[in-house]
Each structure stands twice: as structure tokens, then as C-alpha cells.
Amino acid sequence: MKSCQIVGADGIDALAFNERDVPAPRAGEVLVRVRASSLNYRDLSTVESPAGRGFPYPRIPNSDGAGEVVEIGDGVTRFKVGDRVCGIFFQGWIDGDITPELMQNALGGGLDGMLCEYRVLHQDGLVSTPAHLSDEQASTLPCAALTAWNSLVERGGVTAGDTVLLLGTGGVSVIALQLCQLLGVRAIVTSSSDDKLERARSLGAWQTINYRQHAQWEQQVMDMTDGRGVDHTVEVGGAGTLAQSISATRVAGSIGLIGVLTGGQIDPMPILRKSLRLQGIYVGSRRMFEDMNRAIEAHQLIPVIEHSYAFEDARQAYHDLRAAAHFGKLVITL
User: CA 213, CA 35: separation in Å to the nearest integer?
Assistant: First the structure.
């Protein structure tokens, strides 16, 4: 089978394309023919800086993958041959709180990822694909979409009529915008690109802000919300944008801290003064994934894919992710 592998610490252009034997499922396991694998910033950082993560080489990258079941091991009851499935990010995290032990079982990190033609996973580490989605569309769900769902629904507790702030137009923020429409929530979207903001409005964004034109964009948010602030912020920037996100979030509101794209330090005092809930979001459990998929299927939500790449062009996909010119998701097909 074809596989893409991290074989050293030399970055994107050192990714190797190798042939490996097709694995056989053991008891309780499922062999998946992977049809598509989407990219996340976490995958890019793993490829560019693998040494600090401490996993052995070679390592297959990418947490996200979708395809169909082609063989099952003894005792498998959750799936049958022909079923369409997605892998879950943390293998073994079914429900409840994440644990240090479960955090070692991330696809494309502690475990081999999904950028290969065939992948054996335990039956408990898979969910059914929403019937209306293609494999390419479904491959965008395991990390970015579930992270957005966890932030908005599980931790943020947003309900119809609430207002949410979304930073940027990458994979998490765009699917979060779509989920806001599903939930009846008003979304304010920031970007440095007017073209991307126009696309965000076409997806239902309530308000948009070009942060290059409005460096103090938190004040824009406060003006849009009549001085109250948003109920919840999906914070993908990190320390460099967190202070402004805190200012833009209402008293007793919540912030889902997801990204670390910007450097800097943060003063905790405004969090205290505003009684904010600042929650780290690291993807989500299988139960959350299944809840999200039911909502996606009920509302026929279609994830936004900017571009799809052939397997042989995987390196270019990573370079394009680094360039950050995309809107939504980038996907590699197999």
C-alpha cells in the first residue's frame, strides 16, 4: 500500500512516499481503505517539528481520515464490510474527561496517522460517516469540526440567539461558522482578507471585521454588540490575540482556547475581573463526534473544502497550508 511518512526532522520536503504491506485486522479491529485525509495546523507542526514530540520514525502523519471498511477482525460488532467510517482523533477516548494516557493515542502523533491507503483501527476508534457526505468532506470532521463543536456546544453551551466571535477563516473557524448557522447563533468573523470575509458572509456570518483595517478589532466587536461583548469566543490565535478576545467577550462569558498560532504573554487579571471561563479545547471524544454527526446529518451541513490534492501532491498541500491563503479545509485524496 502507499503511505506517506515522516522519516526525519527535515520538514515538508523530506516527507517520504513508501510502499508498506497492507495490515491485517486482529480481534476487535477493522481494516479501513482510506479515501481522503484532511490537513490541520497540528499536522503541519508535526511534520515541520517532529523531534520534540518524541515519537519514533518513520511515522505516518495526519489525524484525519475517512474511507470504507474492507475487512473486520474477530468479534467486531460495530461495523461491517462496506460501512463508511471516520477515525477518531484520540483512539480510546469514548466519553468523559480526557486523561494523560488517552492523550498518548492521537493519530498522526503518538500513533501512526491516516495518510496511507489502508489503516487498521480498533472498532471503538471509528464513527460512521454522515450519509450525505463524500469521503473528502467527511475527512474534515475528526479534528477541526469536532474541536469547533466541543468549543461551541460542549464547553461554550451556546444556544439560539447567542453571539459568537470566530477568529480567522481556517478550518476550525469556517466549520464553526457553519455550526453557528445550524445552532441559530450569530457569528462575528475576523480576517485580514476582504474576499474571505465576503465568503464568510455568504455562509451566514452576522458581522465581519478586517483586522488589518481595524487593529483594535475588539472595540469593533463591542460596538456591534452594543457594549455587551460576545457570549463565546472560539480563540485560535493564542496568546497574541487572547487579550483582545478577552476584551471582546462579555462578563461571565466563555472562551474556547484552541490555537497557538501567535506568540506572546497574557495577563490573567482581566479574566478574573470579567469572571470569564477560559477552557482549553483539545478536539473531543467519540460521543461528542457522534452527537455532532447527528446534527450535521439532520441539517445536511456540507464542510467547506478549498482544494483537494492527489496523494502524490501531499507535500504541496502542506506548503499551501503553511501559506494560509485557504478558506476552510485542504484535503488529500487517496
Answer: 41
Contact 96, 151 (CB under 8 A): no
Q: What residues have CB less than 8 Å from 158, skipping those under 6 apart?
A: 152, 164, 180, 183, 185, 231, 232
Beta pairing class for 207-210 and 66-72:
unpaired
Range of the domain at 199: 145-280
Counts for the chain of helices (H) and strands (E), in that order: 10, 15
User: Which neighbouring-strand residues pair with 332?
Assistant: 37, 309
> Is residue 293 one of the residues assigned to a domain?
no
Q: How many distinct structural domains can be found in the chain?
A: 2
Taking residues 98-108, what's their average pLDDT? 97
Assess whether 80 and 182 both reside in one domain. Answer: no
- CB-CB contact of 327 with 199 (8 Å): yes
The 3-state DSSP class for residue 239 equals helix
Distance in angstroms (rounded) separating the CA atoms of residues 281 and 263: 18
Do 56 and 19 sit in the same domain of this protein? yes
Give pTM, 2 decimals. Answer: 0.97
Instruction: Write the pLDDT tens digit of every residue in 240-280.
Output: 899 999 999 999 999 999 977 666 788 899 999 999 999 99
Task: Give the integer Cα–Cα distance in Å for 7 and 120.
Answer: 21
C-alpha cell at 275: 469572571
